[in-house]
Design a protein that fits this description.
The chain has 145 residues and is mainly α. 61% of the residues lie in helices and 0% in strands. Helix 2 packs antiparallel against helix 3.
């Protein structure tokens, strides 16, 4: 009556791949390794990061967290609790924290651009000195040595 009788009952394999399925299955790619901070919590890996960048990041994160908290909390306190003095103060403080976050980022970006321009000017000066030294070593008659 049933397609499976008592003799075939143990031969049905659920969850196992057949040989054809195993051949057609692509290999799972390996994820690249990522450099992270130590799990010990001592942040020894943070020494690789520029101190100005690390400082700007930490300050921006603190300002951004304060901005999100205060901008969300201010209107809720104002509306639900009826605190008409504290609610607007919290909202304005949150908006100011958001502005400070943006100012911190812009200051970091300007300092990074200034450092890149300084390196470019220094590289140009080194290149000009190398050109001047090459011109001084060339023969006076204009022929190649």
């Amino acid at each position: 009556m049933f397609s499976l009788d008592e003799d075939d009952e143990g031969e049905v394999s659920f969850g196992e791949s057949s040989d054809a399925e195993r051949e057609m299955t692509p290999e799972i790619p390996k994820a690249p390794s990522v450099k992270t901070f130590d799990d010990g919590g001592d942040f020894e890996g943070a020494s690789d990061v520029d101190s100005g960048t690390l400082r700007a990041f930490v300050v921006a994160v603190i300002y951004a967290n304060a901005a999100v908290l205060l901008v969300a909390l201010g209107p809720m306190v104002w509306y639900f609790e009826g605190w008409s003095r504290i609610g607007p103060v919290l909202l304005v403080a949150g908006l100011l924290a958001g502005v400070r976050t943006y100012q911190t980022y812009r200051a970091w970006e300007r300092s990074r651009d200034g450092a890149a321009e300084g390196e470019a000017v220094e590289a140009d000066a080194v290149e000009a000195e190398a050109d001047a030294a090459a011109d001084d070593s060339a023969p006076a008659d204009g022929r190649d040595p």
